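Human: We require from you a standard protein entry with sequence in single-letter code and fold as tokens, and nothing else.

Assistant:
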Amino acid sequence: MWRIFMATISDGTFRNTICVFDALDECRDRDKKLLIEKLRGFHVRRLATQRNWLKFLVTSRPYDDIQDLFRPVIDLFPQIHLRGEEENDQIRREINLVVKVKRRLEKELTEMKHHTYLWLYLAIDDIKRTLKDSFRPRLEKIPPLPKSVPEAYERILCRVTADQKPKVEMILRIIVGARRPLTIQEMAMALGVATFPNAETAAEAGLCPDGLDKKIRQLCGLFIFIRDSKVYLIHQTAREFLISQHVRSASFHWYLEPHTTEVQMTNICVRYLLMNDLVSNREKLVRSLLEYSAENWADHSRNVLSLEKELVQQVWKLYNVAIDQFHLWFPIFWKEAMRYSKDPGMNAMHLAAFNGHQEILSLITVNEQGAINRVDRSGTNALQWACLRGHFDIVQRLLEKGANVNAKGGKYGNALYAAAEGGHIHIVQTLLEKGANVNAQDKINGSALQAAAYEGHLEIVERLLEKGADVSAKGGRYGNALQAAAYRGHLEIIERLLEKGADVNAEGGEYGNALQAAAYGGHLEIFQRLLEKEADANAEGGFYGTAIQAAANGGHLEIFERLLEKGADANAKGGRYGNALQAAAYGGYLEIVDRLLEKGADVNAKGGEYGNALQAAAYGGHLEIVDRLLEKRADVNAKGARYGNALFAATCGRHLDIVKRLRERKPNFNPQREEFGNSR
């Protein structure tokens, strides 16, 4: 290091420099001696050449050994001796002062009852502020500590000056009203839109986000914190404090009334989405609030439109499907609201029903009486959308205006199914009173009873049964209500359906029968209940062919054992994996593989997606299972199915350890397939 240092300073362009070595006395003895020798040598050479572009400043306690090492050149070095021993009394006084203040603080803090970490954090900040601003902090009396967290919050906000209060209130309203924490960039645009009501473009409205985090901290103090560029309230209790109307001191005026906050957030989102440059200007800052506004404007405005007539006209503009802004924000909105559904091509009425915007719907129904039963691209009408989303007032209005309660089609089949799936009991009751067909069926969805059973809405199941719903009605993805409830694990609904005479062995649907659905889902209690009701352990059909294959595929050992006890066939064929052994091998469930082999499962049984158990285990990357199957004389040369052979399956899965193990068995074929290439 010293050689590198010397070579660096030997450069002719090297400027005048002072090198500082602090606390030399804290070095190891060997290093200390070596460094002093280097410094002595450098100083002697400098005197000889009269070059003084580099100087050293060394600090150290005046220990004898250090002074002895420097003694040969001590008279040549400038020295300053700071006699700290003469300051002992002052040091002692300062230490005592720290101890006394600490004891005072401990006494004050420990005398308070009902401590929380949040209260302590706020109280200590209060003390720091008092002492920081004091001319005589040593003599300053510690102020009375806040007796509670709300009192601490009140003190923080009372420090805000009158001229800064509108800004702080605006910031806090946005933070409190936002459905999620906003980023600094989003906050910059939201504040800009809120404080510049005449802005026509987002570029004009938005604030510069640079340094905004510091400004927000300075204005709001401890009430907020910023983490990962997102703005948060200090605690959930801070939000509750701001929106509650509990009694405070007469001088405190910081109640953020929820309705006013929602109006502000609606204004921000709606005005922003209607900005003239939002479609044409793709700059990141201009579009910083696009995602939040698109996802949340409808929710913010739902409960304020009835009282804010001027706002209705602004919101109505967003329903114009012909403007460019609509096609910018709607895909974002729809992706968040219905994550796995395609854009249904809604018109304004469908969207108003979906959003629950009765004031907007009133404008449409007044002008378009014939549009009530019109469907969107997905075949869904406004009544179905309102039923799904649980907007009771909208449902009533649509029915009053002549909506067909039994209209069929669309993703949900009919309005009753949509309401049952959504879990909206009052809407279900209203539809039934208006003549909805309780047993209406749809090829894709089945009946409303199946929808309620699948979602676990017990009260709706009971109401539908009271109104004559067919407990054994067949159709839909899960075949019947019993299978739907078994798949999702709703025991109470299973009991209610069985009480009403549901056929425990009814066939059809994705899982063939309720027992297979329960086995796949791993719902042991339901599985046992179905067996008690004499469900057939060997019933065939459905995606997995048999219940034992479904249990093996899911790795549900207890259910698997119960099936064996009930005489389930370990070699039953059919279903996705051909047999239970292949299903367990693919899933990597060694215990189930062992039990099947003990029960005489055919290790070389053919069929299913992977042709045989060895190929399934090889592709899944389960070396232990591959070894176990080979021990049981699985045919390493067996051909067929998806990958042709086990070696190629392991190669495609990139499981080199299994490739090596299979090669050790010297397969007597060339593991090659045209569509995949060669495993070598």
Notes: The first helix runs from residue 2 to 9. Residues 88-147 form one domain. The mean pLDDT is 86. Residues 586 and 621 are 8 Å apart (CA to CA).
